[in-house]
Design brief:
- With 429 residues, the chain is mostly helical.
- The protein has two domains: 197 residues, MFS general substrate transporter like domains (Growth Hormone, Chain: A, Up-down Bundle), CATH 1.20.1250.20; 198 residues, MFS general substrate transporter like domains (Growth Hormone, Chain: A, Up-down Bundle), CATH 1.20.1250.
- The chain is 76% helix and 2% strand.
- A two-stranded antiparallel ribbon has the order 1-2. Strands 3-4 form a two-stranded antiparallel sheet.
- A hairpin with a 5-residue loop joins strand 1 and strand 2.
Length: 429
């Protein structure tokens, strides 16, 4: 399907070679297979081991806090000091060691040591989410045309990692509280799986990825501050602020969608249900260049942001039967439109707007927003809204979801009025 999208979109650039396509597809697959192996099951794993909910939340939130620190400096390093493939290799090999330590630190008595390890891992992993994008854009003939067909393998990697966990660590275990719980959240197997993949990927970065030296020249202030100067352009500032709100929405989805589906929609196989959205994401990613070419960047991003607002409106009216159940599932399925049409398109936009020597820093700044600040704020917001909408029987999910829906519809209007895309959909990346 990636080849189809490539041939459908007119481009003045030569086609991406099959050898490069395979190399970058494997890169994307492994990058997100690491994350998909453990992040969803880590919170219930910690709670099952006796950590308090507050402790477990703070350990998971470390992933987003680390993104706010390390992602920025990673872009500077990739732009100025070290080859991108070497930076990724170092981060993933060292990350494999810390993932292994995380699998061994399972006692609440080791909380502060585990806090330091998870924070350290976040400092290593999060930069690679941005560097993997900038490395791709640097090494393909046409970033707008080629990136979606490669990034789709990241989604495939995430899905395959989850399926592998379900297959290898199947069955149940009796918890200390006397309840049967799935082995996927009872054992440290997912963390060990992530550690192995991380180590193998680190080696792959050194031996298989093309040499991508720093593109920056000269000296002066950290490139992060130069990347921030892009916000002087009003339209780019509108894009940046709107992305913050969408990132907050994504954090709320990651943190609360599972509980909503289980308690309100009556779904027991939450992981498989959430995979519906990832399958839609996979299908739409390979079609993204077609939509960009036909409708333009702004229209595509408007659709994506509209779907974020619509998703939470559907969730607000969701239930465990009839139309309400269909609305809940529909909200899950919209994930592909939400992520691909807004965030994937946004990363393409940032790459096109940034000067050549600041592209890695621009990607890092956007990664800071999407994978760090926004998601972190969304996690906090979901906790606050859950507390405000707490009832004697659980959570008032209408009150919970209607708030972000209204906020996102307002953000959508703001974006439609003030955002101006300078470049056409078929401009050079």
């Amino acid at each position: 399907m990636a080849a189809l999208s490539q041939s459908t979109v007119p481009s003045v650039h030569p086609p991406l070679s099959m050898a490069r396509r395979i190399i970058f597809s494997i890169m994307m697959f492994l990058q997100f297979a690491i994350w998909g192996s453990w992040i969803i099951v880590y919170y219930p794993f910690l709670v099952g081991k006796g950590f308090t909910e507050t402790q477990a939340t703070s350990l998971v939130a470390n992933i987003y806090l680390g993104a706010m620190i390390s992602t920025l400096f990673a872009g500077y390093l990739a732009d100025r000091w070290i080859n991108s493939e070497k930076l990724m290799g170092i981060c993933h090999v060292l990350g494999a060691v810390l993932l292994y330590l995380m699998s061994q630190l399972t006692s609440p008595d080791q909380y502060w040591l585990l806090f330091a390890v998870t924070f350290g891992y976040s400092l290593l992993f999060n930069p690679t989410l941005s560097v993997v994008n900038s490395l791709t854009f640097r090494n393909v003939p046409d970033g707008e045309r080629d990136f979606p067909g490669l990034r789709v393998f990241g989604t495939i990697g995430w899905i395959c990692a989850g399926l592998l966990i379900d297959r290898v660590f199947n069955g149940t275990t009796m918890s200390e509280a006397g309840k049967e719980i799935p082995n996927t959240i009872a054992t440290n197997g997912p963390l060990l799986q992530a550690s192995i993949i991380s180590f193998l990927f680190g080696i792959y970065c050194f031996v298989a990825l093309p040499k991508t030296p720093p593109a920056g020249t000269g000296s002066g202030a950290l490139d992060f501050f130069r990347a921030l100067s892009m916000l002087k352009d009003f339209s780019y500032a509108v894009f940046f602020v709107t992305t913050l709100f969408a990132s907050i929405a994504m954090g709320m989805y990651f943190n609360s969608a599972g509980g909503f589906l289980e308690t309100k929609a009556g779904i027991k196989e939450v992981g498989s249900t959430l995979a519906i959205g990832q399958v839609v994401e996979l299908l739409l990613l390979v079609s993204l260049p077609i939509f960009l070419a036909k409708f333009g960047l702004k229209t595509v991003m408007v659709i994506g942001l509209f779907c974020w607002a619509l998703r939470y409106l559907l969730f607000a009216h969701g239930s465990d039967s009839g139309l309400g159940f269909a609305l809940a599932i529909g909200g899950v399925a919209l994930h592909g439109f939400c992520f691909d049409f807004f965030f994937a398109a946004g990363f393409i936009h940032a790459n096109k707007e940034a000067p050549d020597d600041l592209r890695a820093s621009a990607q890092s700044l956007l990664g800071f927003l999407v994978y760090g600040l926004g998601t972190w704020l969304g996690t906090l917001a979901s906790g606050y809204l859950a507390q405000v909408n707490k009832t004697e029987t659980g959570t008032d999910w209408f009150g919970f979801w209607i708030v972000p829906s209204v906020v996102l519809f307002i953000a959508l209007g703001f974006f439609m009025v003030f955002f101006k895309s300078k470049s056409s959909a078929t401009a050079n990346a």
